[in-house]
Design a protein that fits this description.
The complex is a heterodimer of chains A (236) and B (45). Chain A is mainly alpha-helical. Chain A is built from 7 helices and no strands. Classes of the chains: A mainly alpha (236), B mainly alpha (45).
């Protein structure tokens, strides 16, 4: 057990260092390498962290989806722990998306919020996973909590493709498609900067997962010791 | 410039607060584990 913890701690340090280096590189690329957009000027640079956090929120929710399916098949608590940790970080990233979006929108569109498809579905996504975390907090019994959360985590993921394709499905003038088929394209330096930023946030996501899972492990250790003490007292 | 700075500050404060909250939870739980282990050891004696 101790050896496993040492390996995890070493991996956490390596990923943490990688995230730190990638974040510094992303910062340099955003402020010194990527060209200034002609119309929005420096406000457009919000795009890199906005998209970086959005993609990784999707990745975190995909991990919830995947871990939930595996948990329902195996009933191995480690998968439930991964789903819970991933959902928490996904909610953090979605919160950052929902905060940076209106800051950008206020300058670029002249309004903090509008009920257009991408914004609305993203808000719904945030509420779905807040609900997921509320379920986890409300059910004390681990098996029941794991089951309920897994079902919710699988169904809730349906909103992720809806958020992504909302601009295609319902059309949006405010969120133009930049990447992919029909996209307007972007300067290659902007694309490189975006890729570095997305990877930097992915490394940060993995680092935060390590940290959050370590907390979950100690929480279960505390519960196990308490159970042990309780059974000792009952035996008296 | 202020909008861009505001967005970056918000992101970094958000991440910093989350890392701090995980760290605090970890320290509190580790202290609880130590305390419980001591209690269990005393009971065995």
């Amino acid at each position: 057990m101790e050896e496993g913890r040492t390996v995890k701690r070493s991996a956490e340090i390596v990923v943490g260092l990688l995230a730190f280096i990638l974040m510094l590189t992303a910062g340099y690329a955003i402020f010194y390498y990527a060209p200034m957009e002609r119309v929005m000027r420096e406000v457009q640079k919000i795009f890199y962290i906005h998209v970086g956090t959005a993609w990784n929120a999707f990745l975190a929710f995909f991990l919830v989806f995947l871990a939930s399916i595996i948990y329902l098949r195996t009933r191995d608590r480690r998968w439930d722990n991964l789903a819970g940790a991933s959902a928490e970080i996904g909610v953090l990233f979605t919160t950052l998306v929902l905060v940076t979006g209106p800051i950008w929108g206020s300058s670029a569109w002249g309004t903090w919020w509008t009920w257009e498809p991408r914004l609305t579905t993203a808000l719904v996504l945030w509420l779905i996973y807040l609900g997921y975390l509320a379920i986890r907090a409300a059910v004390p019994e681990p098996q029941r909590r794991g089951m309920l959360a897994a079902v919710f985590g699988i169904i809730g993921f349906a909103d992720v493709p809806i958020v992504y394709f909302s601009i295609v499905l319902w059309g949006s003038k405010l969120h133009p498609q930049v990447i992919g088929p029909g996209g307007g394209g972007m300067d290659p330096r902007m694309l490189v900067t975006l890729i570095i930023t997305v990877f930097a946030f992915t490394a940060l996501l993995i680092y935060l997962l390590f940290k959050r899972l370590a907390v979950e492990e100690i929480t279960q250790e505390v519960a196990a010791i308490k159970d042990d003490l309780r059974s000792q007292l009952d035996a008296i | 410039m202020s909008y861009m700075l505001a967005a970056y500050i918000v992101v970094w404060i958000g991440i910093f607060l989350y890392v701090m909250s995980i760290g605090r939870r970890q320290v509190r739980l580790q202290a609880e584990v130590r305390e419980l282990k001591e209690l269990a050891a005393r009971r065995k004696r």
